Automatic annotation (TrEMBL):
Keywords: Signal. Residues 1-18 form the signal peptide. It comes from the Eukaryota. It comes from Folsomia candida (Springtail). The keyword Transport does not apply. This is Copine-D.
């Protein structure tokens, strides 16, 4: 009985402080993108870069292009394994695709631990992006 209680307490503390390994699923969206092209809305892809204590930045995901859309809701779902001791970080590079040159829209960097903490209560974490634009990470259930 006492042992069960202690185990439960440790589990609760682990969830609150993000000290347990866990699987993380997310989707991405952005609102109020602007200033990409003269005659149309942004044509956005998001490149996901990952880094940790044991790995330098490397690409670990990319969305499809959402053409001519300043409120893109990206279709892909991304899955990651959170390992607290790895101190994993993500960088999301938003890029406007063009025929000749791709232009950066903005970048957001966040630690996986901060994301897990922020999404304990509400599913979405919001970032300001170059003034009016916003970028959102939406935590999905694993089911
Ligand atoms: Ca474009």
């Amino acid at each position: 009985m006492g042992k069960l209680l202690i185990t439960l307490l440790i589990a609760v503390v682990g969830v609150v402080t993000g000290q347990e390994e866990t699987d993380v699923a997310m989707t991405l969206f952005a609102t109020d993108l602007n200033g990409c092209d003269e005659l149309s809305a942004c044509d956005t892809v998001v490149k996901i870069m990952c880094a940790s204590v044991s790995s330098d930045w490397r690409q670990c995901g990319i969305t499809g292009e959402m053409g001519d859309d300043n409120f893109p809701l990206f279709k892909e779902r991304f899955n990651f394994r959170y390992v607290p001791s790895e101190m994993q970080r993500w960088r999301f590079d938003l890029i406007d695709k063009d025929v000749l040159f791709d232009d950066p829209i903005g970048s957001v960097t966040v630690s996986m631990a901060d994301f897990l903490r922020a999404t304990e209560i509400q599913a979405t974490m919001m970032f300001e992006l170059n003034g009016r634009s916003r970028f959102y990470l939406h935590r999905r259930s694993l089911l």
